[in-house]
């Protein structure tokens, strides 16, 4: 009876995967044919899409939906293979968690790009000032070249062009994540304008300090690579265990999802897995803060 159920679940999973591939391929083929006809092309595709086109369609689907939805797809597949709703519920519960992880990663990358743009802005502004331009004009040219002001660039450019409060506009722009270095630029600007100090020399020191801080963060991330590898290993090990058990003919999905001891082991293992990943991530965050 167990073998019949397993074969039925496997057949249902294969049918679902084939239907998904057919839908994606047919949709892509129809769109490609429509583009060729509307463009007036002489060659019209008559066969199914190639493997590269199917991969491109899957990549576009991945970018549009987000990586977190693959957790639900994996839960559906495991639910079909194991004839249980537990993997489906777990996959659905993992979607918001993975979305938070993806958004946090995107925010970190945006913050790093903005910090690099601020460093480039300081260097470009120092070069423009040394070239003999006035601070306002130099800031306008440097802001156009570097883009380090982000969403507040219009306000800073307007203040520099019309003689407004440039340090105040820079301080407002520094509220963006990753643009904290603009506070130092505002201080250099205020000192140079009020006391007549050299703006270029202050910008050079600020750029050097920001570069040193960025290099320190990069070195810290390199030192934490081992902890990140441990987190990935903790995440992948259960899947490797399931694959190994299936290869040995132990039917781990049936044991975990349809027996009392298996459900207990699944609950305890999931709790320990979540605790291990949480603890590792917490250690890395504390190290980054320190």
From TrEMBL:
Subcellular locations according to the entry: Cell membrane
Coiled-coil boundaries: 203-230
TM spans (from-to): 6-24, 71-98
One Pfam family named in its UniProt record: T2SSF
Residue span, Type II secretion system protein GspF domain: 123-243
Membrane topology listed for this record: Multi-pass membrane protein
Lineage: superkingdom: Bacteria
Statement: the UniProt record of this protein carries the keyword NAD: no
Entries under InterPro entries matching the protein: T2SS_GspF_dom
Keyword Cell wall biogenesis/degradation: no
Keywords carried by this UniProt record: Cell membrane, Coiled coil, Membrane, Transmembrane, Transmembrane helix
GO cellular component, one term: plasma membrane
Primary location class: membrane
PANTHER family named in the record: CONSERVED TRANSMEMBRANE PROTEIN-RELATED, INTEGRAL MEMBRANE PROTEIN-RELATED
Name of this chain's protein: Membrane protein
């Amino acid at each position: 009876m167990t073998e019949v159920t397993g074969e039925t679940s496997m057949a249902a999973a294969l049918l679902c995967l084939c239907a998904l591939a057919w839908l994606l391929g047919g949709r892509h083929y129809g769109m490609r044919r429509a583009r060729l006809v509307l463009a007036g092309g002489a060659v019209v595709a008559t066969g199914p899409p190639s493997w590269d086109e199917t991969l491109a369609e899957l990549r576009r689907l991945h970018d549009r939906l987000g990586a977190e939805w693959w957790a639900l797809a994996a839960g559906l597949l495991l639910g079909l293979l194991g004839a249980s709703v537990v993997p489906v519920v777990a996959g659905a519960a993992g979607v918001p968690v993975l979305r938070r992880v993806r958004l946090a990663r995107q925010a970190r990358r945006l913050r790093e790009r903005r910090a690099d743009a601020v460093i480039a802005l300081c260097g470009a502004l120092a070069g423009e000032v040394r070239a003999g331009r006035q601070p306002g004009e130099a800031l306008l040219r440097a802001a156009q070249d570097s883009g380090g002001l982000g969403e507040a660039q219009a306000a800073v450019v307007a203040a520099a062009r019309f003689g407004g409060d440039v340090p105040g506009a820079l301080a407002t722009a520094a509220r963006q994540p990753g643009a904290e270095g603009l506070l130092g630029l505002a201080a250099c600007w205020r000192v140079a304008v009020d006391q007549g100090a050299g703006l270029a020399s202050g910008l050079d020191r600020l750029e050097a300090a920001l570069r040193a801080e960025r290099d320190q963060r990069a070195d810290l991330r390199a030192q934490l690579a081992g902890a990140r590898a441990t987190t990935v290993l903790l995440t992948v090990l259960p899947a490797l265990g399931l694959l190994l058990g299936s290869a040995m003919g132990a039917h781990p999905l049936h044991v975990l999802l349809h027996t009392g001891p298996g459900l207990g082991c699944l609950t305890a293992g999931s709790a320990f897995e979540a605790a291990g990943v949480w603890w590792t991530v917490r250690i890395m965050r504390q190290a980054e803060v320190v």
